[in-house]
Amino acid sequence: MAKVTALTETKLADLWREVKDQDADDFWGDLKEETLGIAKALIETHLEAEMVERLGANIYQRNPDRCGWRNGHYTRSLLIEMGLITDLHVPVARQRVGPSELLEAYKAEQGQVKTLVREAFLAGVSARRVGEVLEPVLGKAISASSVSAITSALDREVAAFLSSRIADEFDYLLLDGITLKVKTAQGVQKKLVLTAYGITGEGKRRIISFRIANSESEAEWEAFLNDLYRRGLEGNALKLVVTDGCPGLHKALDTVYPYVDRQLCWVHKMRNLTKRVPKAIQQECLAGAKKIYLADNRREAIRAFKNWAGQWRGQVPEAVACIERDLEQLLAFMSCPKEDWRKVRTTNAIERSFREVRRRIRPMSCFNNNASCRRIFYGVFSHPNKRWEDRLILHN
């Protein structure tokens, strides 16, 4: 029993010294699998010694003074200085014999490490460089594989977010998509990430959900909208749905939210207008079109359009037709409270989130798979969601 006690009291540094001696040159670099295997064996030996000491008996030993009985083991991962150990066997007792001192020592530290790794990864640092960036802070190196293992834990949060109940509280629903590249079995392919953003009557804003799709077809958008509906967003409070004018999306809206008014995004419309106006007159023409949505009311907006159309129809008839055919849906926002006009006449709220996604993925040529794409989107979107929750708490 004295040997067991001595082993239990051995400092972790002494155990690591044995491992370092096995491969000293590579210890803080790309360590070999066998090095982590040695570390795993040492930790399991230590955990076994702890259990022996707590029970007062070795395995299968009949001892009248023993404090309990074994009940197999469970497996877990453990992040140590050398990297991530997987499938670590932790012995379990039937009775309460207290937690492992070794695992408790790592518990607090691992929580901090995982948080730092996750935040660095989501902030735009590549998995390969996270270890380099955090080494001065943590005092130890973290391998890219360890970073990937930690960030993969986000998958559970992503799944929970994409299946959680949605409160039917939103007055405005903004819908848009962003194109990204994802590696597939057939090679790198372009994927669409369809996104829904909601604003409540009290001003609460939230990225409601997102979905990876192959296109912006009617079928893809309808599947996404039906998922929102099934999860609780029935649209009973909806006053307006804001879109970029995608035909597939509008057909899907006809099926899922047919009675909700629609607003076409003015930013997208002005971009379309730019393509139809020669550069020599772009500035003057677009300045006149801008007066339409900046009008104080619907009547003045219609008057501004007529004046603008009368001035430019002869020079750029296609540009005038571009506005004219969608004028009703371009002015839908004016039926809402005036204080909401700037929020709902464009899809800028989603576009800002998309810019953050593009900034985050700049170091990457493409996503490795759909899971990594969902992970990054969730990480980027969770920040503004939390910021708006914190604002509401402060205001209340």
Structure description:
There is one protein chain. The strands form 2 sheets. The chain has a 5-stranded mixed sheet with strand order 5-4-3-6-7, sandwiched between helices. A two-stranded antiparallel sheet has the order 1-2. Mean pLDDT is 79; it is low at 1-12, 18-32 and 392-396. 54% of the residues lie in helices and 17% in strands. It has 3 domains: 2-152, no CATH class; 167-263 and 348-396, Nucleotidyltransferase, domain 5 (2-Layer Sandwich); 266-345. Helix 10 (266-275) runs antiparallel to helix 11 (279-293). The chain starts with a helix and ends with a helix. Strand 3 and strand 4 (187-200) form a beta hairpin. The protein has helices spanning 2-8, 12-22, 33-55, 101-122, 127-138, 144-152, 154-163, 218-230, 247-256, 266-275, 279-293, 298-312, 317-324, 327-330, 341-344, 348-361, 370-395, and strands at residues 70-80, 83-93, 170-184, 187-200, 205-213, 240-243, 262-264. With 396 residues, the protein is α/β, with parallel strands linked by helices.
